[in-house]
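Give me structure tokens for this 436-residue protein.
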Amino acid sequence: MFKDLELTHEEASRLSRAGIIQPSEKFGMRLVSSHILCLPSNSADAHQGASAPSATASFPTRARSTQEWFELPTIFESITALEYVGLTPGAARVILENFEDAPDFDYTLPVLEDYIVQHFALADNTRDPREAMTLCGINREIQDAILDPEFREVFKTQSVMHWVEDTIEMNCKTLRIQMHALKEQARAERDKAAFDLSLLSESLDKAAASNPPAEIPSGAPADRQPWSTYLPQTCVIAQDPPAIPQGYRALYTNVVLNSHVTLFGPYDNINLYGIEKCRGGDFHGDCSAIPLVTEKGVAELERRYTARRCPLSESWTARILVSKDFVHSLRYNRLYYSPEWKYVVWRNRQQHVPEDPFDNFTHAHLMIGHKCKAPSSEIRRINREDLQEAITDRHVMTFNGVPVEQWVFRNEGLSSLEGYITGNLHVEVHAPMAYH
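Here you go.
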């Protein structure tokens, strides 16, 4: 499958003539123009005329207007590509040697994650995260990104293993998207050349002089950058986020983008799977849920941490507006740092529901309360009889010295939010950090 992402000799020649790629001095790499991955402009006509917008979008950070060049592996299944996503040469070599007979990289990507997990188990008891990442074959650049002290509060919400897997997986998918963008651009250049040739042929026909200029056929490439494909046609581009109406509350989240899951579905509908979290969270031990935060700065911090770990990927924050009437239509509960909060978080992090007399929290459609920043692996090791002393206020995530409040939509609350969100969603789209 992924061999289809590799450029043919003809495609590479076409892109080279168009000034989109250049040879690189590094083996197995090519230089690619940053213009191939630039964000769309706010004047993109494709998004201006939506009569019933599903969402609005703005672009706080843009790619530089000047052309930059970045290096991209020429082959997906290669040591160079695995180094590109974050592994050391030695780790990359072992993976390819062990799985060189795999039919394609679709089968080796899960194995890549398994490899990291297996090697990380050797370092599971170490107290030093950098040593642990070194032992499982993570390169220094990715280590520095994961351990960046600017994002310490976010880092502490999950285990080192989580961030390693998340970063490697995200970089793999970004590489896939970049190579696909090159293939698409090669096809666009081919179609453009064919269309230009047809126009030239028509202009040579004297009878064509009295005819109006030919319109570009629907199959011709549109003047739209590849990254804009994340936004649906029903999304309206705005200079700034719309004002928050009276009686509404703004909630925020970081949106992780990849080739399989986005915030929008194939029919331009909003797809909440893009921000849904699996069971085992603070307030959703037995079901999936959508946790949102009340402070935009928290979501923005998480977004910047994502961008730091994958600087060649676009990153988003999303704002969802909920009205008081909508919230009051749900069965909701509040739970802040307290002995009860300690127990409920401890129980949910073990993927179990709280027992009586706390089972009322299990039936809530919306849980509002403080966010725990300790990784689940740490919480699960705590015994029931020790949890009140073991879990302290240091386990509460803070932002600018203030505890972070989260709103967790679960069960019926999740399905209600799906039906409510259209027209109440705004996304801020940020250019890849590597070139803005």
